Please model this.
Amino acid sequence: MRDADEKGFSQAAGWARAALGWARAQQGEPAEGIELIRRAMDDLTAIQTRVSMPWFLTLLGEAQAVDRQYDQALATFGEALTINPEERLYRPYTLINRGELLAQTGERDLAELDFRASIDEAGSMGANGHDLRAATGLARLLSARGATEEAASLLRRRLEASITGFDTVDIAAARALQTDLSR
Model:
């Protein structure tokens, strides 16, 4: 990052700074992470770069959620979804994160809408990882309200389509939930 700054690669430095900020937040230093992400966004705005701004805002929202700034995180996720509507690449991920936070704060109906919207967006893009993660979040909500069979079916279809021998954190979480639902 320092080399990119020194050599005048401001855009690369901004992207690296945002990723570092997210990582710091995930490692238990949310205030530092938030500061790094905000600095990255300010630097990128200064050079008139709007590319990937929805992603950076999503990273910021995640860091704010780690820091228990729930209302601010929800507002940041909302901004991420509207700042550049043509840049849809990050929408499923943003919707998943907002859905998870809404579920965590008791807004289950709104969380369900976000998970369903993420599933639709991910499906239209062929983003199977996001589809599975959103389906897992939705299955948790469905299960909590007693729709266990619907939740299990939702996961079963996606897990049957996943690549055999290929295991990710999201696949493991979906399988664990599917096991819990079958009890």
